[in-house]
Amino acid sequence: MTTIGFILAAALLIGVPVMIDGLMDSGLDQTTKLLVGLPITAVGVVGVVLVVVGFSWGGRIARENKARREALVEEKTQVEAELRDLRARRDGLRSRQWQPRPSVPLIAVNF
Fold first, then answer.
1. For residue 98, what pLDDT is reported?
2. How confident is the model at residue 29 (pLDDT cuts 50, 70, 90)?
3. 40 touches 18 (CB < 8 A)
4. How far apart are CA 17 and CA 72, in angstroms?
5. Which of 24, 57, 84, 90 places its Cα 20 to 30 Å from the Cα of 66?
6. Is 110 exposed, middle or buried (0-12, 13-18, 19+ CB in 10 A)?
7. Coil/strand/helix, residue 3
């Protein structure tokens, strides 16, 4: 939108001088120059409006994207903390697993 606005805004450089020249003339030339300059100037004004709207919407979209990015970073941090906690619990459970230890036999066979 902003790019199109920049392209159309250049029409002001043509339309405004043609309209000013038409206002200074008289007769048929005045009418012709005003009829040619007015639409070109209108296109240029539309271009300026598109530039302004494009910049304001672009800023809003950038702020929304930044907020979304920050939320994703926060969520990633929480998930990483949860994963570290789960790994620590898993490692703790592994250390509690049964391990054979030397002990006194329950049955003694004597031959």
1. 59
2. confident
3. yes
4. 52
5. 84
6. exposed
7. helix
- Token pair belonging to 19: 């309209």
Q: Which residue type, as a one-letter code, is found at position 62?
A: A
Give CA–CA dist 13/110, Å, rounded.
Answer: 114
| Pure H helices in 10-27 | 12-24
90 band by pLDDT with thresholds 50, 70 and 90: confident
Concatenate the DSSP letters of all residues of 50-84 into one string: HHHHHHHHHHHHHHHHHHHHHHHHHHHHHHHHHHH
Cα 105 from chain centre: 71
Global confidence as pTM: 0.57
SS3 19: helix
18 pLDDT exceeds 80?
A: yes
Q: Are 55 and 5 in contact (CB under 8 A)?
A: no
